[in-house]
Automatic annotation (TrEMBL):
Annotated ranges, domain P-type ATPase N-terminal: 182-247
Record's protein name: Phospholipid-transporting ATPase
EC number(s) given by UniProt: 7.6.2.1
Keyword Cell inner membrane annotated: no
Catalytic reaction(s) noted: ATP + H2O + phospholipidSide 1 = ADP + phosphate + phospholipidSide 2
């Protein structure tokens, strides 16, 4: 393949031409040759970090280079094309652009890309640290500080952090060794050194060659597996061969094989997915024509054509699009989880070459592959001229092309080097708290094992020393050979007393090895898998509105759901629907929105009256104020009418929303009963707030109809008006507002601004008393809207003179093409026009609460769980939502911390602690204090009051500005003391990193379990910091879901997840661990007592296979079934009495006390199990293998009946598992005793005939379990737990009425 082939022939009917307009005064932007380009990220000059994780989802959306108005292609719109209408490509014929080098005066192109911060007034550049979440591809941009960097360390994510340097495009963009050279349409020359990877991807872990060693290496990261490997290795040594050499390997091999099969199946599915992905096809330019080619064969430098709705196969720089203004719309959901459309652009120089018959050749110098999906730094040499490329010129692998017929681009990164693949790592794994406690008990069992082995070894030494002169005549030992021959008189397996003690110690470890239960690990995995299956299948957690069901994305922390003490919740989209509805409007000091009617009928009538043959219809139904609608349709030219007109023009124009039109045949209204075309418009925006405002403007007759890179078309009551967009200043966290400069059809130029009230009132004009009245009225309306929980924005505008426009445009061109400190320069440029504004009004948007949120929060609080809300909304809105969702109550005393300095925050915290008697905690008793608080809170809920607790419940409300000083200074402990004393904590205006900081505040200072729940990209840090992360499948993409451990469709499902499934999972796993410890310990102790009676000889009465099968086959299935299916209480009872959840965080199902009680019971049962057969058969001639067969059957029946005593819910499969396990044991014993090769041949047949055998088993069961039975009865009668009381009540409710009714009307 060679370069120089035309991309599209002129004869191609779909190839449009373009008209080249001369530069006019209204042209947008310039690219000066001497400008330099900088690749870092925007930041606040005061040091307040922000990034694409928005401070507020929709209130302050920060976008870098994703809006259609920030195009590197800036068309010059002179007066002759002001009202030009753009239509489809097929209907448009435009003259090709000349590719000759234009003069600087003729063409000025704006290049948008990443930005860099100049710190304060200093000219030194502050590097921005990038943190990209492994699972979610979220970028946090922040200025490094000690506290924030330490917090990032705690997040535990392997991040790629880089320091970005300024890149000059004038002479040399990159150092030669750092640049990647891409020769357009010449892949051979591009990769002449074979240094670039192909486009084949591989997400699988293993290959056929690496599977076995790599999988084993990963599995042996578990220390317990190394322990059992060492045991098996010891058993291969002749002096220590207690079990058969093959038999000793069986348990470990079984566990390793099960895990390997599971891992292999999962990896096979990855291989299958990779194969399907790599074999997809795309159109690649080959010999002058676009021909299909498999993705895996695409190489860097090739030119690829993508059609609408197709997926991008690799990272490509755009050369041209089907849109006349070289814009392309892409959906990045597969990459960053966001469902909104983004805009990307082809450079004007390359776009024109796509449509004409000319040779294509050029060189792209770009940065080396990196994980930053929000930045791309490169330049292009094309037809002898050099120009810059930015993030807005590249489309990434995994994105989908939308609303654009086709695009053509050149591959710059392929395969594993694409940004999508570099960001495809998994979420950080989390470990169950109960499993960490289990390790503590495992240590105790190891100590017991060591003591038992030491006793056997020392006993062996003492016994040998006592009988050292009789060893040749005793039945257990021989020092020499007795048989005549060459070995006569030589030593026979005797190594002297010291070595015999040592070998005895090692042999004892082998005999007692299952004291550490290897089967517990595989059992817990299977049980968690079964629990997850039932959680996923719970129809009560299925969200029919979004079609999403519950997801278990992490299988190792199911039981943690039953121990949650703190919930940290986002507000927008988590507690609320994130579906914004325009409710109230304040226009020129007058309040509207009191009486709302549906807009559809009224709007259609207005359009019909205007004589429109094609009616416009918005997909959503919006209620409008009839009085405001009448004002807009008045013919009078008065101040109020003009203000209302500009108010809705601002709503329709000042945004980055993309209108998507679709024609449709439908019936008109019933009066006419005729068919006509209806054009439906749907809006795609980067925030639901913007979409709601644009839809509201459309409902009032101001419909955003079309948007291209340089103009917008607004349908005003049936009349289409075209406006030139001269420039736009996006929202950022410093200005907290957005503005757009537009040229009206009558050549007037206005700046339209919308923003937060805190930033807007300071830049309004202060002329006369009338303006002051409007301002005061609007402020009153804003306060009213906030108190109702509405999200507010202020709308303003003003005319620009030619002089002001010229000054601003020159500054804007310089700032937007500046390659150093672009963000600061753009803010300074915006300040030139964002001043002396005329106040038009304000808006109030309602973000409705999700169904069931108040009830869910109330139930969680009754369960003793503290709910904290962390939101980016303003304080008034957050408080209003808190009241409506019952998080805040009217009887609560609100503590508000709004500090602007460290000293002020310190004083506010100290005053609050002193006023409400909050005591400071010291480091030594910190965890003790927190645990006491947990108990106190529970008792307060259970009993209603408790001595020593403040009678007035407290609610802490704190803003993000205060948290800057508190979390990064030495005030964390003060905040912790105050916050943990409050029932509710509400954090407003918090950044994503501050959310994680709040979670870490509790997580690092207490032993309480934390859960974070959110729906957006700015919740990812919080979700990954918490012990349990829950993602909501909401309106803001899937980034939160991708980073979470569990995902659901609605917040209300959290109530059932914790109170029902969390409770069940914790109770099951807690009992499962204790039972496994008991089951193995009783077996080992039985062997221990036998060894003590056989001269410490480590001789076993059980066959090798019986010892191996005991925990793998005989007793494993019942524990798995009970761990998955057992329920101590029904879901109705658990939801009716939320306080029952407290058993989890009080650790009632698993604690040290229960462990020691279990071990004491185990000791008793093992003594009974060993002693009774010895006592009964002491005068008989029963052999050792018969006794071993009896013990095997007895111990299996004993542990299964022990389990049956604790089963709360008997179902058919439970009966099959428990009693079937006993039957399988008998069957295995019969098979093993029927093989002549084994020494126990035929023993079961003799024993089964004897009544003594069966009576012995019955006596063992009764005597062994009698103390346990009596203990349970006494405890249930005199010290019943809440769960036992609830269970009795549940049983009584299920009985017939005459059995539980009493004549005196009393009830239990």
């Amino acid at each position: 393949m060679t370069s120089g082939q035309p991309l599209l022939r002129s004869s191609d009917p779909s190839a449009p031409s373009q008209r080249h307009h001369s530069c006019s005064f209204g042209s947008l932007g310039c690219l000066c040759h001497n400008d330099s380009f900088n690749s870092s990220i925007t930041d606040d000059p005061q040091g307040n970090s922000f990034g694409l994780d928005h401070l507020d989802k929709g209130d302050e959306n920060l976008s870098v280079g994703d809006t259609s108005l920030h195009s590197p292609v800036r068309e010059s719109f002179s007066s002759d094309v002001t009202t030009q209408q753009f239509h489809s490509v097929e209907s448009l014929h435009i003259k090709p652009l000349s590719l000759e080098c234009p003069t600087q005066d003729n063409t000025r192109l704006v290049s948008w890309g990443p930005m860099e911060l100049l710190h304060g007034n200093n000219n030194s550049t502050t590097s921005a640290t990038f943190e990209i979440s492994k699972a979610s591809s979220v970028v946090h941009a922040k200025v490094g500080s000690g506290a924030s960097s330490s917090l990032h360390d705690k997040l535990g994510k392997s991040q790629r952090k880089s320091r970005h340097k300024s890149l000059q495009f004038e002479d040399n963009v990159f150092c030669e060794e750092d640049a990647r050279l891409i020769y357009i349409n010449d892949p051979r020359r591009t990769n002449d050194k074979y240094e670039f990877t192909g486009n084949e991807i591989r997400t699988s872990k293993y290959t056929l060659i690496t599977f076995l060693p790599k999988n084993l290496f990963i599995q042996f990261h578990r220390v317990a597996y190394l322990y059992f490997l060492a045991i098996a290795a010891l058993n291969q040594l002749p002096p220590l061969a207690v079990f058969g050499r093959t038999v000793s390997l069986f348990p470990l091999l079984f566990v390793l094989c099960v895990t390997a099969i599971k891992d292999g199946y999962e990896d096979w599915r990855r291989h299958r997915s990779d194969r399907n992905e790599n074999n997809r096809e795309a159109l690649v330019l080959q010999s002058g024509q676009f021909r299909p080619k498999r993705w895996k064969k695409i190489r860097a430098g090739e030119v690829v054509k993508i059609c609408v709705d197709e997926t991008i196969p690799c990272d490509m720089v755009l050369l041209g699009t089907s849109d006349p203004s070289s814009v392309a719309y892409i959906q990045t959901m597969n990459l960053d989880g966001e469902s909104n459309l983004k805009t990307r652009y082809a450079r004007q120089e390359t776009s024109s070459a796509v449509y004409e018959e000319c040779t294509i050749s050029g060189l792209i110098r770009c940065e080396l592959p990196n994980r930053n999906i929000y930045e791309f730094t490169a330049n292009m040499e094309f037809n002898g001229h050099k120009f810059s490329l930015s993030q807005s010129n590249i489309v990434l692998r995994g994105c989908q092309l939308k609303n654009t017929d086709w695009i053509i681009g050149v591959v710059v990164y392929a395969g594993q080097e694409t940004k999508a693949m570099l960001n495809s790592a998994a979420s950080p794994s989390k470990r169950s708290k109960l499993e960490s406690y289990m390790n503590r008990e495992t240590l105790w069992l190891s100590i017991f094992l060591f003591i038992m082995c030491l006793v056997v070894a020392l006993g062996m030494g003492l016994w040998l020393a006592h009988y050292k002169d009789q060893l040749d005549t005793l039945p257990y030992y021989r020092k020499t050979y007795f048989n005549h021959g060459k070995d006569y008189g030589k030593r026979y397996k005797y190594y002297g007393i010291p070595m015999e003690i040592f070998f005895s110690f090692l042999s004892s470890i082998i005999v007692f090895q299952i004291m550490i239960p290897i089967s517990l690990y595989i059992t817990m995995e299977l049980v968690r898998l079964g629990q997850s299956y039932f959680m996923i299948g719970d129809r009560h957690m299925y969200d029919s509105s979004s079609g999403s069901r519950f997801q278990c994305r992490s299988l190792n922390i199911n039981e943690d759901l039953g121990q949650v003490r703190y919930i940290f919740s986002d507000k927008t989209g988590t507690l609320t629907e994130n579906k914004m509805e325009f409710q109230r409007a304040s226009v020129y000091g007058k309040n509207y929105g009191g009486s709302l009617v549906v807009a559809d009928q009224l709007q259609e009538e207005n359009l019909s009256a205007a004589g429109a043959h094609r009616r416009l219809k918005i997909k959503s139904t919006i209620a409008v104020d009839s009085e405001l609608m009448k004002l807009l349709h008045k013919d009078l030219v008065e101040v109020e009418r003009i203000s209302a007109h500009e108010f809705f023009l601002t709503l329709a124009a000042c945004n980055t929303v993309i209108p998507i039109r679709a024609s449709d045949r439908s019936s008109s209204c019933a009066e006419t009963q005729r068919h006509e075309d209806v054009e439906t418009i749907a809006y795609q925006g980067e925030s639901p707030d913007e979409q709601a405002l644009v839809a509201a403007a459309s409902a009032y007759g101001y419909t955003l109809f079309e948007r291209t890179s340089g103009h917008i078309v607004i349908d005003v009551n049936g009349e289409k008006l075209s406006f030139d967009v001269l420039g736009m200043h996006e929202f950022d966290s410093v200005r907290k507002r957005m503005s757009v400069v537009i040229r009206f059809p009558n050549n007037d130029v206005k700046v339209l601004v919308k923003g937060a009230d805190t930033s807007m009132f300071s830049i309004l004009a202060k002329d006369n008393e009338r303006d002051n009245h409007v301002r005061h009225a609007t402020q009153c309306h804003l306060t009213e809207y906030s108190s109702q929980g509405l999200r507010t924005l202020v709308i303003a505008a003003r005319d620009l003179t030619e002089a002001e426009l010229g000054l601003w445009q020159c500054k804007f061109d310089d700032a937007s093409t500046s390659l150093t400190d672009r963000a600061t320069k753009l803010r300074q440029t915006a300040a030139l026009i964002e001043c002396d504004l005329n106040l038009l009004g304000a808006t109030g948007i309602e973000d409705k609460l999700q169904d069931g949120v108040p009830e869910a929060i109330e139930s969680l609080r009754q369960a003793g769980i503290k709910v904290w809300v962390l939101t980016g909304d303003k304080q008034e809105t957050a408080i209003s939502i808190g009241l409506s969702c019952k998080l805040l109550t009217t009887d609560m005393e609100q503590i508000i911390i709004n500090g602007n300095s460290e000293n002020e925050c310190r004083k506010l915290l100290a005053d609050a602690k002193a006023k409400y008697g909050v005591k400071s905690s010291n480091g030594g008793s910190l965890n003790l204090k927190c645990n006491k608080n947990a108990e106190i809170d529970y008792l307060e809920i259970a009993e209603g009051k408790k001595e020593g607790i403040a009678k007035v419940p407290l609610a802490l409300i704190i803003d993000g500005n205060s948290l800057v000083y508190i979390l990064e200074k030495e005030l964390e402990s003060e905040l912790f003391d105050l916050a943990t004393s409050c029932k509710v904590v509400l954090c407003c205006r918090v950044a994503p990193l501050q959310k994680a900081g709040i979670v870490d505040l509790i997580k690092s200072r207490t032993d309480d379990m934390t859960l974070a729940i959110g729906d957006g990209a700015n919740d990812v840090s919080m979700i990954q910091m918490a012990d349990v992360g829950v993602g909501i499948c909401g309106q803001e993409g899937r980034q939160a879901v991708m980073a979470s451990d569990f995902a659901m469709g609605q917040f209300r499902f959290l109530k059932r997840l914790l109170l029902v499934h969390g409770h069940w999972n914790y109770q099951r796993i807690g009992y499962l661990v204790l039972y496994n410890f008991y089951r193995n310990a009783v077996f080992v102790l039985m062997l221990f007592w036998y060894i003590l009676r056989t001269a410490f000889s480590t001789t076993s009465a059980l066959t090798d296979w019986s010892s191996v099968f005991y925990s793998v086959i005989y007793t494993s299935v019942p524990t798995i079934v009970v761990g998955i299916l057992d329920k101590d209480l029904s879901h109705r009872t658990l939801l009716e009495y939320p306080k029952l959840y407290g058993a989890g965080y009080r650790q009632e199902a698993y604690n040290m006390r229960l462990f020691w009680i279990t071990m004491a019971d185990t000791l008793w049962q093992s003594l009974v199990l060993f002693s009774i057969p010895i006592f009964i058969y002491k005068e008989s001639t029963i052999d050792i293998w018969s006794m071993g067969s009896l013990w095997t059957i007895a111990v299996v029946i004993l542990v299964n009946i022990h389990l049956a005593m604790d089963v709360q819910r008997w179902v058919y499969i439970t009966h099959v598992a428990v009693w079937g396990s006993v039957i399988i044991t008998f069957a295995c014993m019969v098979v093993l005793d029927s093989l002549p090769a084994f020494p126990n041949y035929g023993t079961i047949y003799h024993l089964a005939k004897s009544p003594t055998y069966w009576l012995t088993i019955l006596l063992i069961i009764v005597i062994a379990l009698l103390p346990r039975f009596l203990f349970k009865v006494v405890h249930h009668i005199f010290w019943p737990s809440d769960i036992q009381i609830a269970r009795e009540a549940e049983i009584l409710r299920r009985r017939p009425d005459h059995l539980r009714s009493r004549p005196d009307g009393c009830s239990s």
